[in-house]
Amino acid sequence: MAKVGIIYNDNKPVACRTAEELRDKLAISGCNVHLATGVGGILGYSKPDSPVCHAPIDQLAPPGFDRDMAFVIVFGGDGTVLSAARQIAPLGLPMLNINTGHMGFLTEAYLNDLPSALDTLLSGKYQVEERTMLHVQVFRQGYVMWEALCLNEMVIHREPLTSMCHFEIQVGNHTAVDVAADGVILSTPTGSTAYSLSAGGPVVTPDVPVLQLVPICPHSLASRALVFSDSVPVLIRPATRERLIMVLDGNAGCYVVPEDRIHLQRSPYAARFIHVNEPEFFRVLREKLGWGLPHIAKPTSVELP
Questions:
Q1: pLDDT tens readout for residues 94-140
Q2: Exposed e or buried b for every residue in 267-295, given b needs 16+ CB within 10 A?
Q3: What's the per-residue H, E or C state across the chain?
């Protein structure tokens, strides 16, 4: 009997309904099915008067989810995928992402494709792509005050109504550099099409083993995105007197004070995406972001005399 997990966005009626219908269908076929929402992967935010929001990264799996599961089906948009990845990555479970949201950049198929995708999934004729995740820790006086996994990016930025900030950033064993900006983004290849892209960073295909550092509104023409190996850790020290805000994947974060240190490194856990079709990253870029579309006024070839 196959053990299967379903994670869904309980704020979307279509995701709730489809998850329950699929659970009943899989149960009839003899599968042992466990349902959960993506809420468990949304860690929330610590408060200024209560900065500790420490949820051990290997204890976020929903009840009933374990390494014996064959796969997990996720119903939602990109936010639900990010949350589900945080919940199940430590278990090493592959996830099939079905879009019931808006952009759906991280999803594999739409709801109308679910029957054929399910057939491929149950037949075992699918591919699994591993996506790099980041392990982020905030240290205060040598103790871990906050930690989490993220699939897209870590962002640290100033609070509203405060001035520009300085960050001392050390990549691996290289000399620390000073970045003056409203904030900085540390992104995985998956996150290179998210906030990092909006801040002027390059698009990186998911198979490239790198991370990138992107300043937000830097106060220097020399401050540009930096791409480097994901095998080295990164240490960030806020060299400013003001309190800052750190956000992961847009749905988890904490306050950072001047004496804190942020440590980032590639996580030993990866998000494992199921592909029922041959993965084609440039097609997704074209369909979701309009990259590489043919120009309307593209000239036709002419014969030279």
A1: 999 999 978 889 999 999 999 999 999 999 999 999 999 999 999 98
A2: bebbbbbbbbeeeeeeebbeeeeeeeeee
A3: CCEEEEEECCCCHHHHHHHHHHHHHHHHCCCEEEEEEHHHHCCEECECCECCCCCCHHHCCCCCCCCCCCEEEEEECHHHHHHHHHHHHHHCCEEEEEECCCCCCCCCEEHHHHHHHHHHHHHCCCEEEEECCEEEEEEECCEEEEEEEECCEEEEEECCCCCCEEEEEEECCCCCEEEEECEEEEECCHHHHCHHHHCCCCCCCCCCCEEEEEEECCCCCCCCCEEEECCCCEEEEECCCCCEEEEECCCEEEEECCCCEEEEEECCCCEEEEECCCCCHHHHHHHHHCCCCCCCCCCCCCCCC
CATH top-level class for 3-132+269-289?
A: alpha beta
Q: How far apart are CA 91 and CA 34, in angstroms?
A: 15
The residue ranges of every structural domain in the chain are 3-132+269-289, 134-266
Q: CATH fold of 134-266, please?
A: Tumour Suppressor Smad4 (2.60.200)
Please determine, for residue 298, whether its predicted confidence score (pLDDT) is greater than 70.
no
Catalytic residues: 78
Instruction: Tell me the C-alpha to C-alpha distance, in Å, between residue 71 and each of 23, 33, 120.
Output: 13, 10, 13
Q: What is the pLDDT of residues 11-54, one digit of tens each?
A: 999 999 999 999 999 999 899 999 999 988 887 666 666 655 56
